[in-house]
Amino acid sequence: MIRLKLPLKDCQSRLFAQQLKRELEHLQPGTLPLEQATTQGGQVDDRNVSATVVEVREDGALIRARVGIFFDEIVGGCSCGDDPLSVNAYCQIQVSIDSASAAAEFALIPE
Fold first, then answer.
1. Which candidate among 43, 69, 87, 103 keeps its CA 20 to 30 Å from the CA of 35?
2. Are residues 28 and 106 in contact, defined by beta-carbon separation less than 8 angstroms?
């Protein structure tokens, strides 16, 4: 669990979504559960992640956000001339944020 640096008072504002996007894009590699979203058996290259906030809602003591994540999947062993191959990948995650402490948990949303 990590603590985000978000203003939690108005989670429905555009500013909240912009700040959430920025924070997710600057998390340490390996923080988001992207390895579960690979489709070709590759490894996640999450050094250049792009986030899109799809939905934010309040749920009791939590703020829940559905976020689309674009990242690269590195596929090795293709026997290609430019092996390994980098392919664009996308998934959606749920970010559950404690509205008192800003502690956040991440979970992959199955397709």
1. 103
2. no
